[in-house]
Design a protein that fits this description.
Layout (H helix, E strand, L loop, with lengths): L1 E8 L5 H4 L2 H6 L8 E7 L2 E7 L13 E2 L5 E9 L2 H8 L1 H7 L7 H12 L9 E9 L5 E5 L8 E4 L3 E5 L2 H4 L10 H10 L12 E3 L4 E5 L5 E5 L15 H18 L7 E4 L4 H10 L7 E7 L8 H10 L3 E7 L1 H6 L1 H7 L9 H11 L5 E3 L4 H5 L3 H9 L4 H8 L1 H6 L7 H15 L4 H9 L4 H5 L9 H14 L9 H25 L4 E3 L5 H7 L15 H6 L20 H6 L3 H8 L2 H7 L4 H11 L7 H19 L1
Parallel strand pairs: 13-14, 13-16, 14-15, 16-17
Antiparallel strand pairs: 1-3, 1-9, 2-3, 4-5, 5-6, 6-7, 7-11, 8-9, 8-10, 11-12
Length: 636
């Protein structure tokens, strides 16, 4: 796990720009605290920060050259099947160059790219973003893993191509810092930025499963080497019992592969099904697995550590519970906000940041259950969508009660107000098409509500049109009544832009590598050969995961309500963080001077926050706070 940066100059005026590689590389220090190196070769500069995981020797450091000195690579990630690939595909390479100089996956990847080019990308098990450069031909390949676990941003102009693992590093390549208002409009709806967009105009993100080819003439072209696809033709291939057995087999292989490490390894254990499955399987391959949970001292409603403890006891793990008070969370808030280099407002990033911070004191690598909810239907909105598609008296009663649910108080912070909130969202979603309902349930405010936060003329008509076009592109997969289309859209929107960004950013802020066995290609591809009836029905979400692993887990975990990884933002905003809102980041005079948002709208939002019916106002306040903090640091 590392950080990479680079610049390919297409003009002769290279010296000044390429010299920025040192500053850009330094911005990635937390991604790679162990070593940092740069190289300048002709019109290309490459930088690499290393977090040593596999072959921690100095010989495995990067940028890494091949023995001939013609090819060089900077690589962020892990290739778990690198030894198998070396044995199967690289005999001719070894005959030409001799035995490998290191025991690293980087050297094997470099050899594969020299020998096979982009053809080898489909063979790789793992996650990655890399740049591979041929000094003789002047050709460069830049690629990203199939599900986008590792980020790769780029800025392409007639003068050159800059790329980096993080925005803060990319900006060191003299990228103009102009906000894309159409993206800000989407961000206020989703609380994150959908890829390939970014908050900075002109900056894009390489998409999962994409490879970029750059030639010496400055021509860059994109190609997709992997795309997740639904396979209805395979829906009858497995019985439910056979599918469960196959899932266990594939997950076991994925976990086993991800146990490879030359540094200490552990696992997150939240108390939910996904992380518990990972711990159950990982415990087969180590005597005393380290496991880690975050608890909430001041809010039992959000605390699930008792369930995690059941799993830890069953598998005799070396379990660590970080039981934190509100003050503990608040102490880390500035550090988390300071690391964010593009607005991102999923508030569960705070506990992930803290969990990563404390976990890193014990291990360098952690396994997680990311991806299971999106691929196997684990969210409450999935159960709601399934019910919406069934003709039933209960559905009609909830729809008919729309005016009542609208009148009741809505909040996520206790059982009843959260239930009223869910009933209201269900009833209002019933009136909409599938794409519009999906968007409503995936967002915190409508396009019209988001637009109302902008000052007059700040959000142009053109920006709103572009925002709508992006939204249609994001929802283009919702074409038929196949429920798997909802899950695939979640993989491409929620998983990619929210969950994976959150875990990558917060873990890297603490120099911790996180691996996700549910996101092995072999698992995800298999999941989309299964009918949705194997995943969700009237009684259960994530059905096949729960049934397939039921014998391995404590009975108390089976089919219990999903709670989520949330924090009591509403209480904080009304108490400890009110001064940050009212006297700083959303201060009336500051908003007016900034000139982006409408003062009347932000003041009304603050009033709603402290009212008896706050609804999801805390989520929008958080989105604005994160943006304002970022704007002051990177734009103002």
């Amino acid at each position: 796990m590392c950080g990479i940066t680079g610049y390919y100059s297409f003009s002769n005026a290279t010296a000044h720009t390429l010299a920025n590689v040192q500053q850009s590389n330094q911005k990635l220090e937390r991604r790679g605290p162990d070593t940092g190196n740069v190289v300048v070769s002709g019109n290309v500069a490459l930088g690499h920060r290393r977090l040593s995981i596999i072959d921690t020797s100095g010989g495995a450091s990067q940028p890494m050259w091949d023995p001939s000195g013609r090819y060089v690579i900077v690589f962020n990630g892990e290739i778990f099947n690198f030894r198998e690939l070396a044995d199967r595909h690289l005999d001719d390479y070894k005959a030409s160059y001799g035995l490998f100089r290191t025991h690293s996956d980087t050297e094997v990847l470099l050899a594969l790219l020299i020998t096979y080019g982009k053809q080898c990308l489909g063979w790789l098990h793992g996650f990655f973003a890399f740049s591979f450069y041929d000094t003789q031909s002047g050709e460069m390949l830049i690629a990203r893993d199939p599900f986008g676990k590792k980020p790769l941003l780029y800025y392409d102009t007639a003068d050159g191509l800059a790329f980096a693992s993080e925005m803060k590093a990319l900006l060191e390549w003299d990228v103009p810092r102009e906000i894309d208002m159409s993206v800000l409009h989407l961000y206020l709806q989703l609380n994150y930025v959908p890829q390939p967009c970014s908050m900075i105009r002109g900056v894009k993100k390489l998409m999962p499963g994409q490879v970029m080819h750059v030639n010496a003439k400055g021509v860059a072209s994109l190609e997709t080497y992997y795309r997740t696809a639904i396979r209805p033709d395979c829906y009858n291939l497995y019985s439910y019992e056979e599918a469960g057995a196959e899932l266990v087999k594939r997950m076991d292989a994925s976990v086993k592969e991800r146990m490879i490490s030359d540094v200490p390894i552990g696992a997150f254990l939240s108390g939910g099904i996904d992380s518990s499955v990972i711990v159950a399987l990982a415990s087969r391959y180590t005597e005393k697995l380290n496991t880690f949970s975050v608890g909430y001292k001041d809010n039992a409603f959000f605390d699930e550590t008792s369930y995690a403890l059941l799993v830890a006891k069953r598998y005799k793990t070396n379990h660590h519970v970080f039981s934190l008070s509100n003050n503990d969370f608040l102490e880390h808030l500035d550090g988390m906000l300071d690391y964010i280099d593009e607005p991102f407002a999923d508030s569960s990033a705070i506990p992930v940041y803290i969990l990563s911070h404390y976990t890193r004191k014990h291990v360098t690598v952690a396994l997680s259950g990311d991806g299971a909810d999106e691929v196997f239907s684990g969210y409450n909105k999935h159960a709601a969508e399934w019910k919406m598609r069934q003709a039933s008296l209960a559905r009609e009663l909830v729809k008919a009660g729309g005016p009542l649910w609208a009148a009741l108080p809505h909040s996520r912070n206790n059982k009843w107000t959260n239930k009223f909130r869910q009933l209201h969202r269900f009833a209002s979603g019933a009136k909409l098409s599938v794409p519009d309902r999906y968007w409503k349930w995936a967002t915190f405010c409508s396009p019209e509500e988001a637009a109302a936060y902008f000052k007059d003329q700040t959000l142009s008509k053109a920006a709103q049109v572009r925002s709508s076009e992006i939204r249609r592109e994001l929802l283009a997969g919702l074409r038929t009544d196949d429920f798997n289309e909802v899950l695939l859209t979640d993989v491409q929107l929620v998983l990619l832009n929210d969950m994976l960004v959150k875990v990558d950013m917060m873990s890297m802020a603490n120099s911790l590598e996180v691996r996700s066995p549910f996101l092995a290609k072999e698992v995800v591809d298999f999941a989309f050969t299964l009918p949705s009836s194997y995943k969700v029905d009237a009684q259960m979400k994530k059905k096949i995961v729960q049934d397939a692993f039921r014998d391995m887990l404590p009975e108390e975990l089976y089919n219990r309500p999903k709670h989520g990884f949330e924090i009591p933002l509403l209480d904080w905003f009304r108490k400890e963080l009110w001064s940050m809102i009212d006297e700083d980041l959303l201060r009336k005079s500051f908003v007016a001077e900034q000139g982006i948002f409408d003062v009347t709208a932000t003041e009304s939002l603050k009033k709603k926050l402290i009212s008896n019916n706050p609804e999801d106002s805390h989520a929008t306040v958080w989105a604005l706070i994160v943006f304002q903090y970022w704007w002051k640091k990177y734009i103002a």
